[in-house]
Amino acid sequence: MNSDNTKVQMRKGILEFCILHIISRGEVYASDMLVELTSAKIMVVEGTLYPLLTRLRKAELVDYRWEESTSGPPRKYYTLTDTGRLFLDDLRETWGELVQSTNQIISNYNNK
């Protein structure tokens, strides 16, 4: 079994949570999301990010506004909706529980 594949799947599993968290800080441009995710070693490409952002918008978790750019095409800046904030709060709670549970299991292994 290849551990690289498992690592990729683990990162993919938390991608939506990370994207919502990034957007929750304020308006953000998609390429800035890519930079932050990549620097955190959550490898994602535009072909993954844009469909996910579209899905989040259709679910009314995020919204966007267009802004004209002096150096190219207009840009979409994403924000979290009120529904998105509630959804993210729920995910944060679940994340905390998962971290606690995982740490408990890992510490039990290390104590043997």
Give the topology.
Elements: H1 3-13, H2 15-24, E1 28-29, H3 30-39, H4 46-58, E2 62-69, E3 72-80, H5 82-110
Antiparallel strand pairs: 1-3, 2-3
Helix pairs in contact: 2-5
Describe the structure.
With 112 residues, the protein is of the alpha+beta class. It has one domain (3-110): Winged helix-like DNA-binding domain superfamily/Winged helix DNA-binding domain (Arc Repressor Mutant, subunit A, Orthogonal Bundle), CATH 1.10.10.10. The protein has helices spanning 3-13, 15-24, 30-39, 46-58, 82-110; strands at residues 28-29, 62-69, 72-80. Strands 1-3-2 form a 3-stranded antiparallel β-sheet. A hairpin with a 2-residue loop joins strand 2 (62-69) and strand 3. The radius of gyration is 17 Å and the shape is globular. The two termini are 25 Å apart. The model has no long low-confidence stretch (mean pLDDT 91).
